[in-house]
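Action item from last meeting closed. Structure (198 res):
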């Protein structure tokens, strides 16, 4: 009789039961993201667009830089996403004086179509959250939330303290450092390591 618990070649319960919290969080995040992406795709919205839509639903009229900072993404990533979202009719750029197409320094506003997506998409995210915690005791969910908030606070403080006089290098800078060291990253090994550590 087949084992219906299997989520791939190795049952996840066997692979990660005693793993570190960071890996469990990463795995849970990946599962939640995939589940949400399946639902968003039915509405022609990518997970990348979802990130920006959520921010703009709460705080419309941001600069590209402010939107990048709130999303925790590079400006180049934000630019690409906004370009696609503009062509889909979800957002528009306006100059600070209100004229359309404010260019890169313009403010980003939701269109009526982009704003209307909130009513369709937020329930999908709520459904994914409900699925994720199904069967969990409400007290455990509340405790998990407190632990996550504590972890976030601790790590934000650690980053603020650790980056005094330093900054996180870009992916391009890291690639240059590796190239200068004479080491060649092995793609297959990296992919295998990512799968094994996920």
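Sequence:
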């Amino acid at each position: 009789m087949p084992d219906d618990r299997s989520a791939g070649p190795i049952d996840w319960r066997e692979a990660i039961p005693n793993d570190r919290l960071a890996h469990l969080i990463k795995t849970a995040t990946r599962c939640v993201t995939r589940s949400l992406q399946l639902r968003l795709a039915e509405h022609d919205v990518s997970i990348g667009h979802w990130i920006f839509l959520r921010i703009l639903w709460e705080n419309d009229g941001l600069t590209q830089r402010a939107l990048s900072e709130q999303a925790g993404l590079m400006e180049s990533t934000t630019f690409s996403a906004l370009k696609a979202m503009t062509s889909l009719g979800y957002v528009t750029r306006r100059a600070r004086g209100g004229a359309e197409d404010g260019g890169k320094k313009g403010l980003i506003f939701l269109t009526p179509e982009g704003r209307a997506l909130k009513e369709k998409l937020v329930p999908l995210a709520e459904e994914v959250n409900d699925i994720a915690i199904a069967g969990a005791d409400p007290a455990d969910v509340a405790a998990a939330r407190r632990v996550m908030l504590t972890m976030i606070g601790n790590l934000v403080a650690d980053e603020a303290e650790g980056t005094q006089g330093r900054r996180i290098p870009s992916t391009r800078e890291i690639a240059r450092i590796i190239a200068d060291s004479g080491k060649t990253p092995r793609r297959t090994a990296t992919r295998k390591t990512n799968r094994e550590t996920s």
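Note appended to the action item: Strands lie at 62-63, 91-94, 107-110.
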